TrEMBL record:
Molecular function GO terms recorded: phosphorelay response regulator activity; protein-glutamate methylesterase activity
UniProt protein name: protein-glutamate methylesterase
GO cellular component: cytoplasm
E.C. numbers: 3.1.1.61
One of the GO biological process terms: chemotaxis
Catalytic activities: [protein]-L-glutamate 5-O-methyl ester + H2O = L-glutamyl-[protein] + methanol + H(+)
SUPFAM superfamilies found in the cross-reference section: Methylesterase CheB, C-terminal domain
PANTHER family found in the cross-reference section: PROTEIN-GLUTAMATE METHYLESTERASE/PROTEIN-GLUTAMINE GLUTAMINASE (PTHR42872), PROTEIN-GLUTAMATE METHYLESTERASE_PROTEIN-GLUTAMINE GLUTAMINASE (PTHR42872:SF6)
């Protein structure tokens, strides 16, 4: 791990290697608002997990590909994360990140009635990346993601939570705030500006 440290709005942090985003109800609109302006040369891999019906005809990756400047695809089992790519968790599978920085898909039982589960993605990434991880938790109607966000915080990662007053459905951000004080509590518009700065936090 690099010993380099970067100053992000007064916080001295390790350079980042990946950005995770979790959301549920209202998440498609929030994701588009957050990611539409990122340039095609954005260097961090971005992994998006939205709660979706358990079926194999999800169009989320196609929708994002049409609207974003970055290339977008569904994450595949055993695939290694690549810089400058937006990955979408496939419907019906839990998505984890292994210590070798590859994806793993599983059909374990739902957590918080959800498969894919934000908690499972966040917890696995905390183990794989530690302080070189950033994660954002956005609008949603259940408590999935709160425990995973706490794991990221405890591992030294950068934690971003959408302000509940700005969220279409505030249950998910409120659940996170009940467990931890995030590094940044922001509206989607303010978070979009911060994501533009995260590209500098690389090894």
């Amino acid at each position: 791990m690099s010993s380099q440290r970067i100053n992000l709005r007064g916080q001295v942090r390790a350079p980042l290697q990946v950005l995770l985003i979790g959301a549920s109800a209202g998440g498609v609109e929030a994701l588009l608002s957050l990611l539409e302006d990122l340039p095609p040369d954005y260097r961090l891999p971005v992994v998006c997990l939205l709660h979706q019906p358990d079926r194999n005809d999800s169009l989320l990756a196609d929708l994002l590909q049409r609207r974003l400047k970055l290339s977008t695809k569904e994450a595949e089992d055993k695939e290694y994360l690549r810089a400058g790519m937006v990955y979408v968790a496939p419907a019906g599978y839990h998505l984890s990140i292994e210590t070798d920085r590859s994806f793993s898909l599983s059909r374990e039982e739902p957590r918080h009635f959800s498969r894919p589960s934000i908690d499972i993605l966040f917890e696995s990434a905390a183990d794989a990346y530690g302080e070189q991880l950033a994660a954002a938790l956005l609008t949603g109607a259940n408590e999935d993601g709160a425990v995973g966000m706490l794991a990221i915080k405890q591992a030294g990662g950068l934690t971003l939570v959408q302000d509940p007053a700005d969220a279409q459905v505030p249950t998910m951000p409120n659940a996170a705030l009940a467990l931890l004080k995030p590094d940044f509590l922001l509206s989607i518009n303010a978070m979009r500006l911060l994501l533009a700065e995260l590209d500098a936090l690389l090894c």
